[in-house]
Task: inverse folding
């Protein structure tokens, strides 16, 4: 089945530094990938839609200059948290729709990245 | 304003009994509904989906029911097993393959 790989699975960084999270589709090509964030005991909130070959689309309230998204190829999207602050500490998850019949191929998710900013 | 609502944060069920998890939505443009299971520090795992042209979809122990007029769906798990204990998220989109909007989740605990 469709596999989405996310790296790293966890990262601790100091306030003010930048962190890059990678999301790869391992056995299919993804022109679109979605980035979500989940705070403890909360829902998964859509942050942005990553589009291969064009700019990402950000949800309302998400700072595009802080959360840089690059969809470099049909199998790789990256999310860079720039100048991270403790309030950015969260669980970040990417997902991608497999190719084929979308109604029979639901979104698959990576295993997420736990970011802790100290 | 939440478009997908799971009003029960938790549910406890005995092994072998039926688990019923509920979900309501407000956006009439939603066309595709899914249930995901999630453990802490892991990504969601797909369970079952249903498109708006159906009112029921079954896969093994899991059945999803959709009531479009009430904008309500439910996930039935029968029989429930201890391994089913996890957080269950209801999600919806206006079209399959597009971004999902999630509810806040319901924590299911199945005791043996």
Result:
């Amino acid at each position: 089945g469709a596999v989405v790989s996310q790296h790293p699975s966890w990262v601790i960084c100091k306030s003010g530094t930048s962190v890059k999270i990678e999301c790869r589709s391992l056995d299919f090509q993804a022109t679109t990938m979605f980035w979500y964030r989940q705070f403890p005991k909360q829902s998964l909130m859509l942050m942005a839609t990553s589009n291969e070959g064009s700019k990402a689309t950000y949800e309302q309230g998400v700072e595009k200059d802080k959360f840089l998204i690059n969809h470099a190829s049909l199998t790789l999207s990256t999310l860079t948290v720039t100048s991270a602050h403790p309030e950015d500490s969260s669980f970040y998850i990417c997902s991608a729709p497999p190719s084929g019949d979308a109604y029979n191929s639901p979104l698959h998710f990576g295993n997420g990245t736990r970011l802790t900013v100290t | 304003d939440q478009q997908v609502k799971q009003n029960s944060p938790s549910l406890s069920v005995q092994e072998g009994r039926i688990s019923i998890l509920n979900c309501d939505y407000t956006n009439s443009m939603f066309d595709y509904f899914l249930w995901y299971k999630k453990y802490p520090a892991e990504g969601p795992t797909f369970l079952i989906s249903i498109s708006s042209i159906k009112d029921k979809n079954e896969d093994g122990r899991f059945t999803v029911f959709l009531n479009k007029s009430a904008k309500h769906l439910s996930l039935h798990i029968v029989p429930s097993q201890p391994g089913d204990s996890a957080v269950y998220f209801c999600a919806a989109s206006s079209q399959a393959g597009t971004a999902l909007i999630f509810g806040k989740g319901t924590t299911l605990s199945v005791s043996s």
